[in-house]
Amino acid sequence: MPDPDDLLSDDEREALATVTAPRAAPQKVLVVDDNQSARDALVSYLKAKGIKCLVAQNAEQALTCLENERDIGLLITDLRMKPLDGLELIRQIRESDKAALPIIIVSGDADVPDAIAAMHLSVVDFLLKPIDTEKLMGLVRKELGIR
Predict the structure, then answer these.
(1) What are the b/e assignments for 86-117, b being 16+ CB within 10 Å?
(2) Hey, is 7 helix, strand or coil?
(3) Any bridge partners for residue 30, and if so which?
(4) Cβ distance 127 to 135 under 8 Å?
């Protein structure tokens, strides 16, 4: 017998749950690197760990992808790209409606001023190539809310 104090029917309770349930956290990683082999290796590694990935071969493609895709929860970008480098990509993201997007930089060619500039742009981390894959996966899981 239904609880007399319960004011909602089962159908109403189900409808309310769909309206009030929190949205799932974005679960895709956008990988940006103009070096195809580096990009493919990183994406293959992430996919092998169960991470859904999107790819962009330059900053312009990344910005377009961010405009069109709703469920990107993390961006991993190379630093040295042309015509826009990784720092300029991050600056443009920080000035957009995606400003809060977590970003990890991976680079094989970086110096202290680059790292300082990146930290001023609120990146999650700055990883040097070859990438410490355990550290990377820890960061990816944390930023995507995966245990």
Answers:
(1) bbebbebbbeeeeeebbbbbbbeebeeebbeb
(2) coil
(3) 54, 75
(4) yes
Tokens coding 48: 């092998």
pLDDT > 70: percent of the chain: 88
**Beta bridge pairs of residue 72:** 28
Q: Give alpha helix (H) positions in the chain.
A: 10-20, 36-48, 59-68, 86-94, 112-120, 133-144
Q: At what angle do helices 86-94 and 112-120 cross, to 10 degrees?
A: 10
For the chain, the farthest-separated pair of C-alpha atoms sits apart, in whole angstroms, at 70
Residues 6 or more apart whose Cβ sits within 8 Å of residue 54: 28, 29, 30, 31, 65, 69, 72
Tell me the pLDDT tens digit for each residue of 38-86: 999 999 999 999 999 999 999 999 999 999 998 999 999 999 999 999 9
- Torsion sign across C-alpha atoms 108, 111, 112, 116: negative
> What DSSP string runs through 83-120?
SS-HHHHHHHHHTSTTTT--EEEEESS--HHHHHHHHH
Phi and psi angles of residue 53, each rounded to the nearest 5 degrees, phi first = -130, 150
Q: Could you tell me how far CA 121 lies from the centroid of its own chain?
A: 15
